[in-house]
Amino acid sequence: MLVGTLGNRHRAAVDERGVVSPTHTGWDLDWWIGADDRWRVPHRETAVRQGLVDGAPIPQTAMRVPGGDAVQRVYGVVADGDPIVVEVENASPAPFVVALVIRGARDIALDGSTVMVDGCPALVSTRAPSRWAHAIGRSTEVEVLSGAARAGPFPRVRHRSGRVEATFLHPIPHRTSLRVALLGRRDAMPKDLRALPDAATVARGWRIQLDRGMRVDLPDPALVDAARAACAEALLGATARVPDENAVAALEDWGFDSEVTASWTRLSGRQRRRAARRPQTSSSWADVCAARERSAASLLLALRSFLVHEGDDVITLLADLPDDWRGGSIEVHGAPTRRGLVSYAVRWHGDRAAVLWDGPGGVTVRAPGLDARWSSTDPRGEALLA
């Protein structure tokens, strides 16, 4: 999952176990938890769950500890230094230690509560670590998990191979959190990490951003959540330092015009030609299911083509209808086409579907997934289908 903000181009990828990889760097940030009974390393634990906070690009990774969870959240905020916030919450009744593991650097040093990576301020925490460990060409795991991590001044560690690993330990009392920031700019850093917005506040901001585009309400709530998360990821991908042309194409289909306009000029000629291609026929439900397994942009492109597909003089609504959707409410608002916006809703009268639509003139509207024989040239109306 990609995280960041639309206000800057600092991005980080978060994997399914909570490892954070800032883009355009060669190092990663892992996390381990030392509880009363033993240490827990997420990539080896079975009791690890991950989701998104309110469908926003805020991965939340929870790992079981005695009596509760260790919960990690990662999200971007607009502040000095373009920070990516990594927050670890102790949602248990007992204290534990979090080990923040920087892996794959060439040069690591510590200045108070700021970790310098490859000569730049990279990670700032609310307090200095209590203990540390370092290694070159191997893991610090044995040293840390055996209780041999050291206290005192941290010695600068350098090696041109880019295989330096350093682990910094922070105790977290029960029901409290540790917050650190991964910096995207060398020339500034947040004045007070505690004053940065929390994950719930950032999620509300993303909700406002996502509501600017095409909106859908479908009988599959998990698909709606996946589409919103995919829109957020596409927004971050299209506005990154190197835009993703598939993300730009997906955003165009979903009505995010300002981001598309800004990103289009930064695409190469070949990327523009690839982004401009559209399938000649509507996507099927099988296409949507397959695209869901590939990427955020693939899901958005396939789902948009499935719900609203624009041909030369025909607009196709719902190429087919999944069995699970029959009898369920379907709404699509503000789908952009070359002729104007298209919106429609499907309601059911027994086993018959009623479609209400509003779109541009001069085209034929059809809904083969509901009634293969029905079509209309009216720009708006209501029909009870066979």
Describe the structure.
- The protein has 386 residues and is an alpha+beta fold.
- Helix content is 21%, strand content 38%.
- The protein is built from 8 helices and 26 strands.
- The chain has helices spanning 141-145, 199-210, 221-238, 245-253, 257-264, 269-276, 285-292, 296-307; strands at 2-4, 11-14, 20-22, 28-34, 39-40, 48-52, 59-65, 68-76, 84-91, 96-105, 107-111, 114-117, 120-125, 131-136, 157-158, 164-172, 177-182, 215-217, 308-310, 314-317, 330-337, 340-349, 352-358, 364-367, 371-376, 380-384.
- The strands form 5 sheets. It has a 9-stranded antiparallel sheet with strand order 6-7-8-9-17-13-12-11-15, with no helix packed on it. The chain has a 5-stranded antiparallel sheet with strand order 5-4-10-16-14.
- A hairpin with a 3-residue loop joins strand 24 (364-367) and strand 25 (371-376).
- The radius of gyration is 25 Å and the shape is elongated.
- The chain starts with a strand and ends with a strand.
List keywords for this structure.
single chain; 386 residues; alpha+beta; 9-stranded antiparallel β-sheet; elongated
Q: What proportion of the residues is helical, as a percent range?
A: 10-25%
Query: What does the overall shape look like?
Result: elongated
- Oligomeric assembly: single chain
Q: What is the CA-based Rg, rounded?
A: 25 Å
The poorly predicted ranges are: none
**First CA to last CA: what distance?**
43 Å
Strand order of the largest sheet: 6-7-8-9-17-13-12-11-15
Tally of individual helices: 8
Biggest sheet features = 9 strands, antiparallel
Per DSSP, what share of the residues sits in E-state strands of 2 or more residues? Answer: 35-45%
What is the average of the pLDDT values? 95
How many extended strands? Answer: 26
Kindly name the structural category.
alpha+beta
